[in-house]
Amino acid sequence: MFIKLTKEQQETIIADIQRFFYNNRDEDITEFEAERVLDFVKENIAPHIYNAAISDAKYVVERQYSTIEDELAALERPIKIK
User: Fold this and answer.
1) Looking at CB atoms within 10 Å, which of 3, 49, 61, 82 has the fewest?
2) Are the C-beta atoms of 10 and 38 separated by less than 8 Å?
3) Contact 45, 3 (CB under 8 A)
4) Dihedral of the alpha carbons of 36, 37, 40, 41, in degrees to the nearest 10
5) How many CB atoms lie within 10 A of CB 38?
């Protein structure tokens, strides 16, 4: 798994998963079961979300680069040919 979580992050997410199951499915799941859900998400779903985030970041950077190019081009001065 490429996603590294701190112990605190993992504990928070596991508690969130347990709360989700309880609130939405009326199921009490153990910490172990919630960890298995988290492992599944990290291995199978997170890469898709990660790649979408990278794509979004790439788009933003490309737009910013384009703006910088335009601003630099506006600073250029014409050269008079004699």
Assistant:
1) 82
2) yes
3) no
4) -140
5) 19
pLDDT value of position 54: 96
Q: What does the buried/exposed string (b/e) look like for 51-66 if buried means 16 or more CB atoms within 10 Å of the residue's CB?
A: eeeeeeeeeeeeeeee
- Cα angle 16, 35, 7; round to 5: 75
State the Cα–Cα distance between residues 10 and 60, nearest whole angstrom.
Answer: 30
Single-letter residue type at 6 = T
Tokens of 47: 């890469």
